[in-house]
Amino acid sequence: MSAAYGASSGTAARRMSPDPTPGRLLAGSRNTALLRFPLPPALPIPLGIAAPEGVTLATWAFSGLEEGDAGGPVCLLALEGTPQGDLTLATHFRDIPIRPEPASDALSEAERLLLARALLSAGPTGVSALAGLFALIEPALSTLMPAADAPALIPEGPGYLLTGTAIPHALLVHTAAGWACARIATGRLRFAGGARIALTLEPLWGAPPEGARAGLALNAHGFVPLHVRAA
């Protein structure tokens, strides 16, 4: 389960848990971080970061909800900004104070995959967090295979053709030089020979986006693994 939310509302009338919950803070690049903490029994839905200022919630995921999962349910918070002390998470139920402690990268395979799905689905505002926390999720990306009827990405000149009519906000592609993320600068629909979109790209981070071997279309509320075809 994962979703992205905007900033929290005012804090004056909200209830606060009395004692800070211990959390594990994994530092990313580009002033990002991942905070992992045990979920209370009520499974409160994250809404935003109430404090400190300068730290915002990019997206989140719950893990360990299945019966028999070791360690019980946990919440993964993808943060822009790195807290230097206690953090207050606003939820639909009450504010939760969390005391982060630095930790090494020790996510399980299931947690990596859930975090990957959350970051890839975070929309245009989540691209910075995706870049900063990419090293945590890269091992999970090979498990995201395209469905049989998924759109295809086809090289054309300096850009790509994408079959279908849905225009993503960005592409994440794997090339011989590594992973690349590029914003869709323009998308022009064509219908001759079947619906497809001519995409021009604006590189955001990573390797040059030419010569894709694998790709994912990043949409406003989700993502789609793509087939890659020769020109």
Would you give an account of this structure?
The protein is mainly beta and 231 residues long. It has two domains: 2-122, no CATH class; 145-228, Elongation Factor Tu (Ef-tu), domain 3. It is built from three helices and 15 strands. The strands form two sheets. An eight-stranded mixed sheet has the order 1-5-6-3-2-8-7-4. The longest helix is centred in the middle third of the chain and has 12 residues, at 109-120.
**Overall tally of domains:** 2
- Choose one word for the global shape: elongated
Widest beta sheet: strand line-up:
1-5-6-3-2-8-7-4
Taking all Cα atoms into account, the compactness measure Rg is 19 Å
Brief digest:
This protein has 3 helices and 15 strands. The chain is mainly beta. Residues 1-13 have a biased composition (Low complexity).
Write out key terms for the chains shown.
single chain; 231 residues; mainly beta; Elongation Factor Tu (Ef-tu), domain 3; 2 domains; 8-stranded mixed β-sheet; 7-stranded mixed barrel; 10% helix; elongated
